[in-house]
Amino acid sequence: MKKMISVILSVQIVFCALAFCFHSSAALAPSIGRIEFSDDGYSYRFLDENGKERENKPAPAKSRAAKSGGTLPSSYASYDILPAVKNQGGTGSCWAFAAITALEADAVAKGYMQKGEKVFSPSHLTWFTYTLPSLPGDPHLGEGMTSNSPYMTGGNWYFAASTLSEWSGIALLNDYMFFPYNQELMSNFSESGRYDRGSGFVLDEAVHLNDENSIKSWIMEHGVCTAAIYYDSNYENRTTHAYYMAQAIDGINHNISLVGWDDDFPASSFVTTPSRNGAWLVMDSWGTGNHNRGFYWLSYDNPDFAYTVGYGVRESGDLFRNYSYNGAYTDGYIYLDGTTIPVSNVYTAQGYEQITALSFWTVEDGDTVTLAVYKDLTGSQPDSGTYATGITLTNLNAGYHTVDLINPVDVTPGSRFSVSAVIQNNQTTPSIIVEIDSEDMTFTHGPGESFYYLNNTWNDTDNEEGLGNFFIQAFTKCSHPYEQVTVQPTCTQDGSVSDVCPQCGKIYAMTSIPATGHNYGGWSDYQESGSKVYKQRVCANCGDIDEDFYYKGMNTITLEKLLRLIFTSVFDAFFRAFSKN
Q1: HEC states along 523-570?
Q2: pTM
Q3: pLDDT above 90 covers what percent of the chain?
Q4: Which of 268, 284, 184 is nearest to 233 (CA)?
Q5: How far apart are CA 34 and CA 334, in angstroms?
Q6: Packed helices 157-165 and 94-109: angle between N→C axes, nearest 10 degrees
Q7: I need a labelling partner for 89 at 20 to 30 A (CA). Which of 27, 113, 420, 553 fits?
Q8: How far apart are CA 21 and CA 265, in angstroms?
């Protein structure tokens, strides 16, 4: 069950009754905002359609309960589930290291693996975030971000979560090693490994945590919360390993992992004294030779402290296909002051599958999202088919969410289905992530893929200049349309009768058929060598040749006489010896 979702309700009403409840006498058009990322990729801000900064109004603070169900303790550290301290060396991949560390810790916290059992690869996440898919058949062919120096470009949690949402980025370190001081060794990963799921995990959620109690509770439950700061070694007390900047410089240059806290950590421990006691325990990514074996304390009052994010994994298990149009994170969103905009993505089913989960993004804290699935679409509209299921999630934190469907939906090859979303927020005008034309990112889109509902009709974003696809995904499991496959036995190998899924290769049942054995014909002579005559016989089934020989002039009768003579002679000799005694 999702940790950041306060209420999950099954919606058993016709979706359009809720989604399209507003009416307007005048034609409306959505406003297009932009997410402006810094040149180094570490920070960002939301701009409205006029280029002015738009505040993300946080939801009321949600004091998440501790694991024990009681009050949060005054101090805590998640050492028992933390992975080993990693070393990013001279690269700018701290954002990937922080995300990977959080994902590893969460997998241990959930009991999916033992501490240290699997180590995830920050190089895989970095490389495939900044390279474009290039294999034919990839649904995101040519989409994404590029960089001439992926390991020095920098990044943020939006980039990480976007790559991870495509089931890319959680690969094993043994398969994609990280070399802190030799980037050339990490610059030619095979494109065939982009969606490597050898780790057994995919992203479940990546959510903004908007208050100290939420951060603390997340650390207790999941082990790590990532954050971004401006780091300058001059502000770290090398004796107490405590970090605090007295004044903000309005900048971010580093991503870190928060792994604990101490409300009573002395303010006097810092180079400059903050206004109160208390600090976060930070696990950094510069190896054990820095700070206190890789750890230091960060004051609660540190001014440049932002983007606190909790990551969660889920086991990939029998997840089969990821229906998605978002090949990389976008830098755009749409909104409509005073109301909400229902949106929808339409997909074509690739096989006999069952939609079991949906994912989506929220921009503001406090959003309520209602999702609906329509199947077997008959027309161009997202609601032209049969309403299959729906679900509502309330008071969500900003970020990426995955929700399991209470009632999975069966789809068949070639049929079309839609996933629609209505986002509402009582505190602010809700925003919806969408692809927009950008110099930094490449997107592809086409007609009939993404729609928004406005002016009493569905509008195809492909007809709107500058708009692309919405970030709504559907995850499926294979429905296993088993077919009987018979493997005939051979003379030496057993055969079988199996029920095999032609989509995923899963075998439901197998019955063995014993090997038949050879079916040899009669002997025939084929070669002589002196008195030795070679003979052979051939298996009528497989053509196997069995060879033997006999001596010329010794047919079966003479051989029988010879054996009888030998036996008689031996018996007579034994009898005479026995009689003498």
Answers
A1: CEEEEEECCEEEEEEEECCCCCEEEEEEECCCCHHHHHHHHHHHHHHH
A2: 0.86
A3: 71
A4: 284
A5: 9
A6: 60
A7: 113
A8: 53
Q: Would you say residue 421 has pLDDT above 50? A: yes
Amino acid at 310: G
The H or E element containing residue 127 is: helix 122-129
Q: Count CB neighbours of 180 within 10 A.
A: 17
Spatial contact of 394 and 6, defined as CB atoms under 8 Å apart = yes
pLDDT of residue 578: 62
Above 60 in pLDDT, residue 23?
no
Q: What is the mean pLDDT of the chain?
A: 88
453 burial class (0-12, 13-18, 19+ CB within 10 angstroms)?
A: buried
Distance CA 362, CA 161 (A): 13
Cα torsion 485, 486, 490, 493 to 10°: value is 60
C-alpha–C-alpha distance, residues 48 and 36, integer Å = 10
Pairing of strands 399-411, 353-362: antiparallel
Q: Is 38 helix (H, G, I), strand (E, B) or coil?
A: coil
Q: Kindly report the backbone phi and psi dihedral angles of residue 469, in degrees, each rounded to the nearest multiple of 5, phi listed first.
A: -100, 155
Structure tokens at 420: 């629609």
- Fill in the DSSP letter of residue 87: B
CB atoms within 10 A of CB 334: 23
- Angle ∠(138,155,103) on CA atoms, nearest 5: 75
- Coil, strand, or helix at residue 235? helix
Length, in residues, of the chain: 581
* Structure tokens that stand for 249 in this block: 């410089």
Residue 60: the pLDDT is 40
Kindly state the helix (H) or strand (E) to which residue 17 belongs, with its residue range: helix 15-19
Can you read off the two tokens belonging to residue 409?
């939906």
Alpha carbon 375 to chain centroid, angstroms = 25
Tokens of 422: 């209505």
Strands 201-208 and 225-229: unpaired
Instruction: Supply the pLDDT for residue 6.
Output: 30
Kindly tell me the sign of the dihedral angle through the C-alpha atoms of 396, 397, 399, 402: negative
Instruction: Give the Cβ contact number of residue 264 at 10 Å.
Output: 10
DSSP secondary structure letters along 47-77: E-TTS-B---PPPPP--PPPTTSSPPPSEEE
Which residues lie below 8 Å from residue 22, measured CB to CB, with a gap of 6+?
A: 339, 340
Distance CA 94, CA 307 (A): 14
C-alpha–C-alpha distance, residues 175 and 181, integer Å: 18
Kindly state the average pLDDT of the residues 191-219: 96
* CB contact at 8 A, 429 and 355: no
Residue 163, C-beta contacts closer than 8 angstroms, at least 6 positions apart: 125, 128, 129, 169, 328
If we measure between CA atoms, which residue out of 15, 54, 25, 4 comes closest to residue 334? Answer: 54
Whether the Cβ atoms of residue 298 and residue 279 lie closer than 8 Å to each other: yes
Nearest to residue 399, comparing CAs of 199, 194, 226?
A: 226
At residue 188's C-alpha, the angle toward residues 183 and 191, to 5°, is: 140
- The three-state (H, E, C) secondary structure of 182-210, written as one string: CHHHHCCCCHHHCCCCCCCEEEEEEEECC
Residues 162, 326 contacting (CB under 8 angstroms): yes
DSSP-based three-state secondary structure for 19: helix
Whether 87 has a pLDDT exceeding 80, the answer reads yes
